[in-house]
Automatic annotation (TrEMBL):
CDD domains: SPFH_HflC. Residues 21-185 form the Band domain. This is Protein HflC. It is found in: Membrane. InterPro entries: Band_7, Band_7/SPFH_dom_sf, HflC. It comes from Thalassolituus maritimus. Signal peptide: none annotated.
Amino acid sequence: MSPKAFTSLIVIALVVLIGSQSFYIIKETERAIKLRFGEMIDDDVQPGIGFKMPLADVIKRFDARVLTLDTQPSRFLTSGKKYVIVDSFAKWRIKDVRNYYQATSGDRTRATLLLENQVNKGLRDEIAARSLYEVVSGERDQLMTKLTAMLNEQTQDELGIEVLDVRVKAIDLPDELSNNVYQRMSAERGRESREIRSEGNELAEGIQADADRQKTVIEAEAYREAEQIRGEGDAEASRIYAQAFNKDPEFYSFTRSLKAYTETFEGNDVLLLDPKSDFFRYLNDSKGN
């Protein structure tokens, strides 16, 4: 290759290099700033294709979408001097690129670390002003709304970040506090179960006593009715016997004697009777005389 051709090749390479360094592309999902020799000359570079001075200008790009900060679970102290372990997350995005770059040097890791410190500080202050019940359920939504507004105001001024939302994923108790709470709950449930069982036994005894009383009354009434019916039956039987006797006294006496013979001589018993007694009068005389 001739020296002239080699020189032309170098010139073309330099032109291509300078040309590639003279243009930049900013996406719609990005925010960017332009630095010239390390000094910021444009803090709001618009999306699209732009021109910059080769070697002198540098374009810094940042993600403009809504980002999520997932904080590490931390221990906080409530107003009742009870520790809770809070796991939270925050939604944020870059609001002021200049402030963001000046506060973090464009380092997203540093930005999330600073934001996490702000979130934890805000949670610590808000939880310290509330009881355990208020933190867990009573004022949880109110706490999150107030914390979001407070953090958004602080981070926009200090970090150029807009905090869109702060939410708590979980609130847990430390192991030692969980055991104490479980023991208290167990004791309380045991006391309630004993009270319920005692009330049930008292109610059962009342029902049993009432059932026994009703049983006694029913049996007494049944016995009275049975005796009354038996008495009426005996009276009716006596009336029928008397009526039958009046119709044919001799036949009635004969049938009664036969029945007496049957009932007397059923078993193997031995009876010593006078054959001429009145008991055998129908055996000795068919007419019973």
